[in-house]
Amino acid sequence: MKKTFKFIVISVVLLLMAIGVWWFAADYQVYEDRPQKSLDEYVDLEQDFQKLFQLANDGETIELPAGHFKFSKALILDGKSNITIKGAGMDKTILSFRDQKEGAEGIRVANGSNITLEGFTIQDAIGDNIKAIYIDTLTFRRIKTEWTARPNTELGAYGLYPVICKNVLIEHCEASRGSDSGLYVGQSENIIIRNNRTYENVCGINVENSGNVAIYNNETFHNTSGITILDIPGLTRYTENIRVYDNKIYDNTLFNFAPPGNVAASTLSGTGIMIWAGKDISIYNNEILNNPFPTMIVSFLSSYKETKNKEFVPIAASEQARMKVGIKEEASLREDAINEKYETDKKYNPYSVGISLKNNTWSFGSLRKKIQSKDGALMALGLGGKNAHVWYDGVANPNGSTFCIENANDIKVAHLDILNDYSDAVIKVAAEKCEVVAKVQMK
Amino acid sequence: MKQKFVLLIFIFGVITFIACKQNSGSETKIEPLTDVTAATEMLRKQSEGKKADIGKDKLSEYGFFLGNLKDLKPSEGVIPYDLNTPLFSDYAHKLRFFKLPEGETVSYREREVFAFPVGTYIIKTFYYYNNENEKQEGRRLMETRLLLHEADGWKTLPSYIWNDEQTEAFLTVEGGTKEVEWVDVTGEKKNVAYSIPSQVLCKSCHVKNNELTPIGPKVRQLNRDFTFATGTQNQLLHYKELGVLTNLPDLSQVRKTPVWNDPTSGSLHGRALGYLDMNCAHCHSKGGPGNTSALHLSEFETNEFNMGIGKHPIAAGKGTGGRPYDIVKGQPEESILLYRMQTTDPGEMMPEVGRKLQHEEGVALIEEWISKM
């Protein structure tokens, strides 16, 4: 009798566990190493490729054959104009840098104008897959960039990495598993990022210190943060005039695997769109679904957490708050650094200003999604499990509005009051029309 | 009873398996084998008949050297120079010359690289002594690099790679790798797969404001003694006497970079900045490719933030080594700058090209400099 009872109890427990696992797993994203050919099956025609890139004359099209090719050094196109590098197709021409020994990126395009790269896949560069620097008029089309191992800090940083470029078009590309960003644009101007798919990166799409940027019709999912827009002091230009519309931004709950020390390592898992300083940013007509933090709007002053113990504390927090998590020294060091930056870069604006949100479709994701995003779970607990569309640090530009929400019905704003150690943190429904939501100033 | 338990556990396992299976990672389609012949043909057809637009096939054709080529004995008008603090290149030694067009001179400049006239060649040969302590045991010449100043700017010629017999060096557009071993000053055996840059790779360092430029021959680097065929003399004075350098002020007014490993030549700070200037500033300065990071490592940088002190990295990736700032005063082990000098992972290291080994002595200098900040 007793034995039967024990049996029933154990079976019920086991059954419940199984159902529990099923319930959780049904929504759980698992990230495995991608199936890979052995490197022996990749063909080594490196010298021919190198020669082709080097000897290309202005105005030519460099045609890459179909097949799997491996490289030990970076391929470089430098000082050329009107060049198209064209593969046989996204999944037909595959360039693998898994065995790379020299060079910090797979392909480097530098000091040129009117360069187009299209129709190939690039994998596993040791640093960044494709870097473009000092190029006027640059197009990436139907390029797939990926790292094939499961997400971890050892993966390369940027999939596509144009920096200090002008007139950049990125379209019909696919970017995954960058330990910083899948598609990145930095210190550049006049940029269109459209019709791309980015997934399993820390930042799906990342725009840094760039101006006149349109991001539309992209699908960005399974990243730590779907879209990140930020402005950092001390660089060659600032972030302004960004439009983000008609994108599908969903299920961004991947854990953060950026190497500590990088700005991206501070991104919260579960972020749909992150705005981290910058001016005149409009976000409209997007589907922002199943992200525990659909939008985050923060100032550079509340840059989060430090590297060592990976604690989650704003630098502007009080000494006491810092003591609590034992990062006193690092936080104060960081504060010094930030102060120094202001002295250095007088034109820099650390606030997110002129942010407008309009006509977006929102959802927050199931409890399971929030559990998957550890940060989401923590935040949800911290504010009594309540959801909010906009997560705002409460650090406002003393001279003007931070953001406004049009058609504000039911849009909830989590006002974190970071400068006062979250003491007045609340979630409230945003007021109708465009209104200055934030009034807290820095002390 | 036992069987029932086993059955239950089995069912549990199956459910778990199915649950996990349905969401496993996306599949990458594996294409059929590559058609090597077609691919090779396609690639070669495109470069067929193309040649690098400049450069003779063999080094000897230029007539830079007299007698036995490998002795690198300069011919008339080929003038040797050395630098106070050179770029580290995997412990290779460098023998440097410049050659002005006949009758031309170069004018003194306070800060920048000398404005050599059109037609100037800069000739640099990389070599290893077989034994650093017994130099008479001979040396192995690896490659000779040429910079040529043409009417529309400087050109990097492809590297000339020395043959194993050391009788000639041949132009090679795509560069290459050569194993080399030597005995270092401590008597330790060392070796490296020495990397010879492709022509285009030269530009990764030799570019400023989108123009090619030499890096080394600045007055502060040239202001030092050198043992010429005629005897030991300050290089600048020697050039002045030769009549090739004009407008040289009194030497007491001329800048001088300390010798990085000679404490009698300058302060720790001066030597460290000189070292960073030569090893980093060709990229890490305004107008250089490393400008994207706002980290400026020129000898003339005075802004602590731009020097990296308390500065966050911009796009370092795993090159941070998990550290928060480029330089943390007093804490070299917390400074990214030092980590990137120490690592030899091409995805993390600095400089990005040009070395495979750690420059242990250079690292020690920077380590000491940061620790004493």
Describe the structure.
- Chain A has a domain at 147-429.
- Helices cover 16% and strands 38% of the residues of chain A.
- Chain A has helices at residues 2-25, 46-55, 319-324, 328-344, 367-372, 374-382; strands spanning 61-63, 67-70, 73-78, 81-86, 93-96, 102-123, 128-146, 158-163, 166-171, 174-176, 181-186, 189-194, 197-199, 203-208, 211-216, 219-221, 225-230, 240-245, 248-250, 271-276, 278-284, 287-289, 293-298, 352-358, 361-362, 390-392, 403-405, 412-415, 426-429.
- Chain A has a 29-stranded mixed beta sheet that branches.
- Chain A is globular and about 80 Å long.
- Mean pLDDT of chain A is 83; it is low at 304-341 and 435-443.
- Chain B is α+β, with helices and mostly antiparallel strands and 373 residues long.
- In chain B, 21% of the residues lie in helices and 21% in strands.
- Chain B has helices spanning 2-21, 36-47, 199-202, 219-222, 235-242, 268-280, 336-342, 360-371; strands at residues 65-66, 73-74, 78-81, 93-99, 106-107, 121-129, 139-150, 153-156, 159-162, 169-172, 176-183, 189-196, 207-208, 211-212, 225-228, 231-234, 245-246.
- In chain B, strands 3, 4, 6, 7, 8, 9 and 10 form a 7-stranded antiparallel beta sheet that branches.
- In chain B, β15 and β16 form a beta hairpin.
- In chain B, α6 (268-280) crosses α8.
- The model of chain B is unreliable at 22-28 (pLDDT under 50).
- The chains are: A alpha/beta (443), B alpha+beta (373).
- At the A-B interface, α1, α2, β2, β3 and β6 of A face α1, α2 and α3 of B.
Main attributes?
heterodimer, A: 443 residues, alpha/beta, 6 helices, 29 strands, B: 373 residues, alpha+beta, 2 domains, seven-stranded antiparallel β-sheet, 21% helix, 21% strand
Structure summary:
The complex is a heterodimer of chains A (443) and B (373). Chain A has 443 residues and is an alpha/beta fold. Helices cover 16% and strands 38% of the residues of chain A.
